[in-house]
Amino acid sequence: MSHKKTKISDFGEKKLITRIIKKTRQLQSDYFSNDLHIMNSLGDDAALIDFGSNYLVASSDMLMETSHFPKQMKAREIGWKIVTVNISDLAAMGAYPTGFLVSMGLPKEMDIDFFDEMVDGILEACKYYNLPLIGGDTNESPQLVLDGTALGKVDKKKVLMKSEAEKGDLLAVTGPLGLAAAGFEFLLSENYPEIKSKKSKNSENLKKTLRLVTKHAFKPKARLNEGILATQFDQIKGATDITDGLVSELEEIINASKNSDMNSQSSIGIKIYENKIPVPPEVIEIADLFNKNPLDMALYYGEDFELLFVIKKDGIDKIKEHLNLHVLGEVTNTGFMEIVKRKGITEILPSGGYQHFID
Fold it and tell me: Model's pTM, two decimal places?
């Protein structure tokens, strides 16, 4: 009787990362034992390395043509995005960016003009985030693959971690959720050509909506300034960026807090409120167009690149004087995620979010 082999697609991205972290902690325990932040950074947005009074912060993200680049995406936008996805991780740690590297897998039939435009997009993003392109590599590949690494630094006393949440803390985001999801819903739709042709005959509002959501999908901006500013407030305890969906990041905060205190018998939970989630009208408009739930776009789709902060309850008023925030819930001690619906009914919030390796 043959034994069916387990594939990585049976696990999904999050479980694969958990396996790597577990093995790393077991086999390299001596390296991580002297600094709790360095150990916990294995599961955070970026890695931390001891650098005197600062941490060197390193983030690495890969984008692939078949998974991340809709056919309508221009070369310059592709270059912009590989920088932004990495800078967003630095922002979530409160780090100043210091350098960027990119390795490229390039199809041999790629047009040189496309290549030049893509590099221009990388350099445009580097200029926007005020960091130099300092190196990388190129190789031949069956499809376009970009692997970026962003380096930064942050004061050890000010680094933002996922693992600091405690009961009573508030949860707040830096901006609206679901706009990029609405953009990709439009761009990846089988009816994209039909809707695109109709928009010229439709209202000015729909035209503006499609331009806005497409821009959020194609040219997202990392909340770098907000992440750096957040380190100036002791009331802000931690952060993460919303790339895989709000729910996925909330679950990351719960799991990170569990891992940071393995001897604790209590477990944090999270409660958010539907009427506090910043879903803009453009998301609702696109959701109606495609018969989707706009709340699902905000909760599960991802690609927003907003920051999610964990904040001490007594510090929110002071912080709001300097940061535009939307408070959407709080940390509890229930051990699970809840959502309070508009009618006041509390429900369990199902897990979910964007992952690779899913059949």
Answer: 0.87
